[in-house]
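Reproducibility note. Readers wishing to regenerate the assembly model reported in the main text can use the exact inputs given here. Chain order matters: entities are listed in the order in which they were concatenated for prediction.
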Amino acid sequence: MFKITTEVITGAEVREAVEGPDAGAVVLFFGTVRNNTDGRAVRCLEYEAYPPMAEKKMAEIAQEISEKWGIDRVAMVHRVGKLEIGEVSVAVAVASPHRKDGFEACKYAMDRLKQIVPIWKREVWADGEAEWVKPDAVFFDAPKRHKTAPQTD
Amino acid sequence: MNVTVKYFAVCHEMLDRSEEEMDLPEGATVETILKRLEEEWPEIAEFYEVMQMSVNWEYATENTELAEGDEVALIPPVTGGSDV
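Running the prediction on these inputs yields the following C-alpha coordinates for the assembly.
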Protein backbone atom coordinates (compact mmCIF):
# COMPACT_ATOMS: atom_id res chain seq x y z
CA MET A 1 0.00 0.00 0.00
CA PHE A 2 1.41 3.33 -1.12
CA LYS A 3 -1.10 6.08 -0.69
CA ILE A 4 -1.70 9.79 -0.44
CA THR A 5 -4.86 10.47 1.55
CA THR A 6 -6.94 13.28 2.98
CA GLU A 7 -8.28 10.92 5.69
CA VAL A 8 -7.06 10.59 9.28
CA ILE A 9 -4.23 8.03 9.52
CA THR A 10 -4.73 5.51 12.32
CA GLY A 11 -1.89 3.15 11.43
CA ALA A 12 -4.23 0.17 11.17
CA GLU A 13 -4.23 0.47 7.38
CA VAL A 14 -0.45 0.19 6.98
CA ARG A 15 -0.13 -2.49 9.65
CA GLU A 16 -2.76 -4.68 8.03
CA ALA A 17 -1.13 -4.14 4.64
CA VAL A 18 2.15 -5.71 5.79
CA GLU A 19 0.89 -8.50 8.04
CA GLY A 20 1.83 -12.04 7.16
CA PRO A 21 2.72 -15.37 8.74
CA ASP A 22 6.43 -15.04 7.91
CA ALA A 23 6.79 -11.79 9.89
CA GLY A 24 8.50 -11.87 13.27
CA ALA A 25 8.43 -8.12 13.60
CA VAL A 26 6.27 -5.24 12.42
CA VAL A 27 7.94 -1.84 12.75
CA LEU A 28 5.53 1.09 12.65
CA PHE A 29 6.58 4.71 12.30
CA PHE A 30 4.32 7.73 12.65
CA GLY A 31 5.32 11.27 11.81
CA THR A 32 3.23 13.73 13.82
CA VAL A 33 2.68 17.47 13.75
CA ARG A 34 4.90 19.18 16.31
CA ASN A 35 3.85 22.39 18.03
CA ASN A 36 7.05 24.25 17.22
CA THR A 37 9.90 24.50 14.74
CA ASP A 38 13.17 25.53 16.35
CA GLY A 39 11.20 27.10 19.16
CA ARG A 40 8.76 29.09 17.01
CA ALA A 41 5.16 28.19 17.79
CA VAL A 42 3.32 26.36 15.03
CA ARG A 43 -0.48 26.59 14.72
CA CYS A 44 -0.92 23.85 12.11
CA LEU A 45 0.70 22.34 9.01
CA GLU A 46 -0.62 22.12 5.48
CA TYR A 47 0.64 19.33 3.23
CA GLU A 48 0.35 19.19 -0.54
CA ALA A 49 1.36 16.28 -2.78
CA TYR A 50 1.60 15.25 -6.41
CA PRO A 51 -0.35 12.05 -5.74
CA PRO A 52 0.37 9.80 -8.74
CA MET A 53 4.09 10.56 -8.69
CA ALA A 54 4.27 10.36 -4.89
CA GLU A 55 2.69 6.90 -4.88
CA LYS A 56 5.01 5.78 -7.68
CA LYS A 57 8.08 6.99 -5.76
CA MET A 58 6.89 5.26 -2.57
CA ALA A 59 6.67 2.02 -4.53
CA GLU A 60 10.22 2.58 -5.79
CA ILE A 61 11.45 2.98 -2.21
CA ALA A 62 9.81 -0.34 -1.35
CA GLN A 63 11.62 -1.88 -4.31
CA GLU A 64 14.93 -0.51 -2.99
CA ILE A 65 14.16 -2.06 0.41
CA SER A 66 13.39 -5.35 -1.26
CA GLU A 67 16.78 -5.27 -2.98
CA LYS A 68 18.72 -4.21 0.13
CA TRP A 69 17.09 -6.32 2.82
CA GLY A 70 14.95 -8.85 0.97
CA ILE A 71 11.89 -7.39 2.71
CA ASP A 72 8.76 -7.29 0.56
CA ARG A 73 6.24 -6.10 3.14
CA VAL A 74 6.38 -2.31 3.22
CA ALA A 75 3.48 0.15 3.34
CA MET A 76 3.44 3.95 3.37
CA VAL A 77 0.63 6.45 3.64
CA HIS A 78 0.96 10.24 3.74
CA ARG A 79 -1.83 12.63 4.55
CA VAL A 80 -2.40 15.95 2.77
CA GLY A 81 -4.42 19.02 3.65
CA LYS A 82 -4.52 20.90 6.94
CA LEU A 83 -3.24 18.96 9.95
CA GLU A 84 -3.55 20.01 13.58
CA ILE A 85 -0.88 19.62 16.27
CA GLY A 86 -0.43 15.96 17.22
CA GLU A 87 -2.07 14.52 14.12
CA VAL A 88 -0.30 11.86 12.07
CA SER A 89 1.09 13.13 8.77
CA VAL A 90 2.82 9.96 7.65
CA ALA A 91 2.85 6.29 8.60
CA VAL A 92 5.31 3.62 7.50
CA ALA A 93 5.03 -0.08 8.30
CA VAL A 94 7.66 -2.72 7.62
CA ALA A 95 7.20 -6.38 8.40
CA SER A 96 10.31 -8.54 8.53
CA PRO A 97 11.37 -11.92 9.90
CA HIS A 98 13.64 -10.22 12.48
CA ARG A 99 13.48 -6.77 14.11
CA LYS A 100 16.94 -5.45 13.19
CA ASP A 101 16.25 -5.42 9.47
CA GLY A 102 12.78 -4.02 10.08
CA PHE A 103 14.06 -1.04 12.09
CA GLU A 104 16.75 -0.30 9.51
CA ALA A 105 14.38 -0.59 6.57
CA CYS A 106 11.79 1.63 8.26
CA LYS A 107 14.37 4.36 8.87
CA TYR A 108 15.57 4.02 5.30
CA ALA A 109 12.00 4.38 4.01
CA MET A 110 11.50 7.65 5.88
CA ASP A 111 14.88 9.05 4.84
CA ARG A 112 14.16 8.28 1.19
CA LEU A 113 10.60 9.57 1.44
CA LYS A 114 11.93 12.98 2.41
CA GLN A 115 14.36 12.91 -0.52
CA ILE A 116 12.34 11.76 -3.51
CA VAL A 117 8.60 11.73 -2.78
CA PRO A 118 6.94 14.93 -4.04
CA ILE A 119 5.17 16.17 -0.91
CA TRP A 120 5.44 19.70 0.44
CA LYS A 121 4.81 21.19 3.83
CA ARG A 122 3.64 24.69 4.69
CA GLU A 123 4.09 25.88 8.24
CA VAL A 124 1.35 28.11 9.58
CA TRP A 125 2.84 29.91 12.55
CA ALA A 126 0.88 30.78 15.67
CA ASP A 127 1.19 34.47 14.75
CA GLY A 128 -0.68 33.83 11.49
CA GLU A 129 2.25 33.97 9.06
CA ALA A 130 2.81 30.99 6.80
CA GLU A 131 5.63 29.70 4.62
CA TRP A 132 6.63 26.72 2.54
CA VAL A 133 9.39 24.64 4.06
CA LYS A 134 12.42 23.37 2.20
CA PRO A 135 14.93 20.81 3.47
CA ASP A 136 17.04 22.20 6.32
CA ALA A 137 15.63 25.70 6.01
CA VAL A 138 12.47 27.61 5.41
CA PHE A 139 11.92 28.14 1.70
CA PHE A 140 12.57 31.72 0.80
CA ASP A 141 9.43 33.73 0.23
CA ALA A 142 8.10 33.72 -3.29
CA PRO A 143 8.88 37.06 -4.90
CA LYS A 144 5.97 38.82 -6.50
CA ARG A 145 5.25 37.81 -10.05
CA HIS A 146 5.39 40.45 -12.75
CA LYS A 147 2.30 40.31 -14.88
CA THR A 148 3.99 42.57 -17.43
CA ALA A 149 7.57 42.99 -18.64
CA PRO A 150 10.27 42.97 -15.97
CA GLN A 151 11.19 46.28 -14.42
CA THR A 152 14.70 47.55 -14.90
CA ASP A 153 15.41 48.78 -11.37
CA MET B 1 2.20 19.39 -29.55
CA ASN B 2 0.30 19.85 -26.32
CA VAL B 3 1.59 19.04 -22.88
CA THR B 4 0.16 19.59 -19.40
CA VAL B 5 2.35 21.47 -16.94
CA LYS B 6 1.65 21.23 -13.22
CA TYR B 7 2.78 23.61 -10.48
CA PHE B 8 2.95 22.66 -6.82
CA ALA B 9 3.46 24.37 -3.49
CA VAL B 10 5.58 27.49 -3.84
CA CYS B 11 5.42 27.30 -7.67
CA HIS B 12 1.63 27.17 -7.58
CA GLU B 13 1.67 30.24 -5.38
CA MET B 14 4.20 32.10 -7.50
CA LEU B 15 2.47 31.48 -10.81
CA ASP B 16 -1.04 31.74 -9.38
CA ARG B 17 -2.25 28.57 -11.13
CA SER B 18 -1.90 24.86 -10.48
CA GLU B 19 -1.69 23.61 -14.05
CA GLU B 20 -2.01 24.62 -17.68
CA GLU B 21 -1.86 23.26 -21.21
CA MET B 22 1.12 24.40 -23.29
CA ASP B 23 1.35 24.24 -27.05
CA LEU B 24 5.03 23.54 -27.83
CA PRO B 25 6.97 23.17 -31.07
CA GLU B 26 8.13 19.71 -32.18
CA GLY B 27 11.44 18.82 -30.59
CA ALA B 28 10.67 20.82 -27.44
CA THR B 29 12.42 19.85 -24.21
CA VAL B 30 11.82 20.61 -20.55
CA GLU B 31 14.05 23.65 -21.06
CA THR B 32 11.54 25.04 -23.58
CA ILE B 33 8.98 25.20 -20.78
CA LEU B 34 11.41 26.75 -18.32
CA LYS B 35 12.30 29.48 -20.80
CA ARG B 36 8.65 30.20 -21.51
CA LEU B 37 7.91 30.55 -17.80
CA GLU B 38 10.91 32.81 -17.41
CA GLU B 39 9.49 35.18 -20.02
CA GLU B 40 6.32 35.54 -18.01
CA TRP B 41 8.01 35.71 -14.67
CA PRO B 42 11.79 36.40 -14.76
CA GLU B 43 12.39 35.82 -11.06
CA ILE B 44 11.49 32.16 -11.43
CA ALA B 45 14.99 31.55 -12.79
CA GLU B 46 16.45 31.93 -9.31
CA PHE B 47 14.35 28.97 -8.22
CA TYR B 48 15.53 26.67 -11.00
CA GLU B 49 18.71 25.86 -9.09
CA VAL B 50 16.79 24.23 -6.23
CA MET B 51 13.90 22.89 -8.26
CA GLN B 52 13.48 19.61 -10.06
CA MET B 53 11.32 18.73 -13.03
CA SER B 54 9.35 15.61 -13.77
CA VAL B 55 7.92 14.17 -16.97
CA ASN B 56 5.20 11.55 -16.66
CA TRP B 57 5.89 11.07 -12.92
CA GLU B 58 9.64 10.53 -13.33
CA TYR B 59 12.40 13.01 -12.51
CA ALA B 60 13.75 14.60 -15.67
CA THR B 61 16.47 17.01 -16.76
CA GLU B 62 16.15 20.15 -18.81
CA ASN B 63 17.30 18.14 -21.84
CA THR B 64 14.49 15.60 -21.58
CA GLU B 65 12.55 15.60 -24.82
CA LEU B 66 8.80 15.98 -24.70
CA ALA B 67 6.03 14.27 -26.62
CA GLU B 68 2.36 14.95 -27.26
CA GLY B 69 0.27 14.46 -24.12
CA ASP B 70 3.19 14.43 -21.65
CA GLU B 71 2.54 15.54 -18.08
CA VAL B 72 5.32 17.81 -16.87
CA ALA B 73 5.67 19.20 -13.34
CA LEU B 74 7.83 21.72 -11.52
CA ILE B 75 8.96 20.04 -8.31
CA PRO B 76 10.13 22.41 -5.54
CA PRO B 77 12.35 20.87 -2.83
CA VAL B 78 10.31 18.12 -1.20
CA THR B 79 9.61 18.23 2.52
CA GLY B 80 7.18 15.43 3.24
CA GLY B 81 7.33 13.13 6.21
CA SER B 82 8.36 14.23 9.62
CA ASP B 83 11.38 16.07 11.05
CA VAL B 84 12.46 13.47 13.58
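We highlight two features of this model. The CA atoms of residues 7 and 13 of chain B lie 8 Å apart. The longest helix of chain B spans residues 30-40.
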